[in-house]
Design a protein that fits this description.
The protein is mainly α. It is built from 27 helices and seven strands. The longest helix is centred in the middle third of the chain and has 16 residues. The radius of gyration is 25 Å and the shape is globular.
Length: 515
């Protein structure tokens, strides 16, 4: 019955209009409302399957779905404590994986087995993100990829589940040799410091160059002599505090030795790997996960266990092809029905990207592909003068990076390309990406004030705004709500200025919610 419902939908639910389906599909896959031209073209000749196929091949999908992965993997642009250096290589790697439609299991393998500098092997950014916190990284790994929350067991036996502290440490022992810092970087940095002082005839350390060197030390490296030990306050009878821990898988196929590569292969072969991923993708499309919480899934607790099993099996049958799985979900009859998805407020990124598009058109992605060429140093042969020259070349590179166009004070740039969360994104509940599943779609007075008189609202009625080129009531409605106004709406709004009509529309629930 679950499979029948997925394909046929609920017989008691009406299908949505072409306008609602168009808007719903764009917000889901492109992360923004369609432009005026896109709306007109589709409504003249609706073809939903063709629309879905085209969107899944588009750059809009890449930029939008990056937000999904960035929240899941807690990706930030800035490397903590390394000033101006960035996670650009890792960010670009994730976007390229989406662009190339790399299978999800392959992407996970590459992250969990990555070795070397992040600048040279960007997948190592997954470990570098949690620099110096290997146990926290392992805890997130279990939540993200298997939907198993062992975080409580990091400190003590979990009183609300069967996980023990020994389970946690035995599983984490597969990652015991992993370290996020090149052990040679400290000695190299001291050597370069001394050479620069001699060249410049000063005792002052060049902090920028030191950060450049430190950035070359971030990634995933192996310390073959490292052994994970139980904490000093371990208080259970099965082992002594500070005793070494041998690897042991917490469930499924028993594996008693190996490193992170062995554990990565074990992860992607677990049925829960498919269950956790398909449940998250279902939630991404419908707004209503079948199993909660997302980070601690139990298929027996699903709202519809049969459907959860079929979705997990489907994702696996598709060889973890995310694009094909999303096509399967978004072209299903459930997605096309009035109650097929949960009515919910736009995410912070969807709201930002929609408003930016309405004001300035679809933003061009920011190209930072040359970043690695300027920050990647050959540490083995690096000299003090070479470090000085590299720093100047890097500064010249950053000065020449293209700047996005602006409408008023609003940068026309996708949320996925912003280095920092804007005030708008913060107030609309964008994740800080310190914890997974930490974004919010709840309302607040701050959101109301931003939409009443914030820079993004004012930019919509700016003289350079695309919306103001031909601000008829019809065009305003098509550009924002993806539909024409009713006769009653036209009559009520006829006496208002274009700016006032725009203000009224974007402050409406119809604009702010996925219907």
């Amino acid at each position: 019955m679950a499979a029948v419902l997925l394909f046929t939908g609920n017989a008691h639910s009406e299908q949505v209009s072409d306008e609602v389906l168009l808007r719903r599909t764009y917000l889901t896959l492109a992360g923004r409302v369609p432009t005026l031209e896109e709306t007109k073209n589709y409504l003249q000749s609706p073809d939903h399957d063709k629309l879905v196929v085209n969107l899944l091949k588009s750059e809009d999908y890449v930029q939008s779905f990056y937000n999904y992965y960035a929240d899941l993997f807690r990706i930030k642009a800035n490397i903590d404590g390394v000033g101006f250096l960035k996670f650009y290589p890792y960010i670009d790697w994730v976007k390229n994986n989406i662009r190339e439609n790399k299978p999800y299991d392959q992407m996970v393998r590459e992250m969990l087995t990555a070795e070397g500098k992040m600048i040279e092997n960007p997948a190592a950014g997954y470990y570098a993100r949690d620099n110096g916190m290997p146990l926290d990284n392992f805890s997130y790994t279990m939540q993200v990829f298997l939907g198993k929350d062992l975080s409580c067991a990091q400190c003590h036996d979990d009183p609300f589940s069967h996980w023990t502290q020994m389970d946690f440490y035995q599983s984490a022992a597969f990652f015991a040799q992993n370290t996020t810092r090149d052990p040679s970087i400290t000695q190299i940095s001291r050597k370069i410091d001394e050479e620069i002082k001699q060249i410049r005839e000063t005792d002052r350390v060049d902090n920028a160059i030191r950060q450049l060197l430190r950035g070359n030390g971030y990634g995933s490296f192996k310390n073959q002599n490292a052994v994970l030990k139980l904490p000093h306050d371990y208080r259970y009878d099965d082992a002594e505090p500070n005793s070494p821990v041998n690897p042991y898988t917490p469930f499924g196929d028993v594996i008693k030795s190996g490193d992170s590569a062995v554990f990565a292969e074990w992860i992607v072969k677990q049925h829960d790997f498919s269950v956790a991923a398909s449940n998250r993708l279902w939630a991404f499309v419908t707004g209503d996960p079948l199993i909660t919480p997302l980070a601690n899934v139990d298929i027996a607790a699903s709202k519809n266990e049969e459907l959860s099993r079929k979705l997990a099996n489907k994702f696996k049958e598709l060889n973890y092809d995310v694009r094909l799985f999303l096509h399967f979900l978004v072209t299903s009859n459930v997605f096309k029905q009035e109650n097929g998805i949960k009515t919910r407020r736009l995410t912070a990124e969807q709201a930002w990207d929609s408003l930016v598009t309405i004001a300035g058109g679809v933003p061009m992605p920011i190209d930072r592909s040359g970043y690695s060429d300027f920050v990647n140093l050959d540490l083995a042969s690096l000299t003090g003068q070479g470090a000085i020259d590299a720093m100047e070349e890097y500064r010249d590179f950053t000065r020449k990076l293209p700047r996005p166009k602006q409408i008023g004070s609003l940068p026309i740039v996708r949320a996925s390309d912003l280095e920092r969360r804007t005030d708008f994104l913060k107030k609309f509940g964008a994740s800080e990406r310190e914890l997974i599943d930490s974004s919010s779609v709840n309302g607040s007075s701050g959101q109301v004030l931003l939409l009443i008189n914030g820079e993004i609202t004012n930019s919509l009625s700016h003289k350079d705004s695309i919306l103001m080129k031909d601000p008829s009531i019809e065009n305003i409605f098509l550009s924002t709500l993806t539909r024409l106004p009713t006769l009653q709406e036209k009559s009520a709004l006829r006496q208002l200025s274009a700016a006032d009509i725009v203000w009224a529309v974007i402050n409406s629930n119809e604009f702010l919610f996925i219907q």
